[in-house]
Amino acid sequence: MKILTPQPFYFDQGQQAVLLLHSFSGTSNDMRLLGRTLQRNNYSVYAPMFAGHGTSEPLDILNQGGPQNWWLQTKEAVEFLKEQGKTKIYVFGLSLGAIFATKALEEIPDVLKGGVFGSPLYSSNFSEIRKAFMTYTKKVYSLQQGLSDFELDSKVRVVDSKIDSMLTSVRKTTDSVADNLAEIKRPYFIGQGINDKLVDPDAAKIVAQKVETSQLHLYDAGHVLTINSAHKQLESAVLNFLENN
């Protein structure tokens, strides 16, 4: 069976463009359902892939990625949409992507509105995110043919030794973005699953209080709202937000 490598996507559909940013252990594939819905409603959609993601080596995320690189990519993605002649640009992010979508709304004047799904802002700790990444690591390595149990365990231990440094860096960026939430004066969508196990669902309510222009949408679902049981509700709410705010 051939496993297809995830790829960034760009749907060129109209003058209004939506930038979609994926999560820490995810890829642009997690944004595709939302992207297609937006495309059908005459929005152009761009979902880049953060550095280190979309490979069969989890270490790539830790070695090639990082908040500085991912923020630079976010800014480059906005510039790409401007170069494509898009007159209105919006940005949404899932989990890790939520950090940079929020930062874009704080710092990039060209972004007119946007929001977050499963945002880690104001979550008390990243222990569940760490656990999820290690689970993801073991799954990816277990799919690699020819690895002995010893080799698999050795690879997992290398990731385990490096993950905390990355999460510390991400946490610092998250705290910095949270400190500047009052800078957001444009419409800000907050989508949060009440059964989210990776981030604190109640943190979304704190963010909503900090951002005067926010709309808080709660869903009876878990973390990855773009593909879980709430995805159709989310798609409808995002469309309504884009068209009526």
Automatic annotation (TrEMBL):
InterPro entries per record: AB_hydrolase_fold (IPR029058), AB_hydrolase_sf (IPR050266), Esterase_lipase (IPR012354), Hydrolase_4 (IPR022742)
PANTHER family: HYDROLASE, PUTATIVE (AFU_ORTHOLOGUE AFUA_2G14860)-RELATED, MONOACYLGLYCEROL LIPASE
Protein name according to UniProt: Alpha/beta fold hydrolase
Domain named Serine aminopeptidase S33: residues: 15-221
UniProt keywords, alphabetically: Hydrolase
One GO CC annotation: membrane
GO molecular function: carboxylic ester hydrolase activity
One Pfam family here: Hydrolase_4
Keyword flag Coiled coil: no
Species per Swiss-Prot/TrEMBL record: Companilactobacillus suantsaicola
Keyword Iron-sulfur: no
Active site per database record: 95, 196, 223
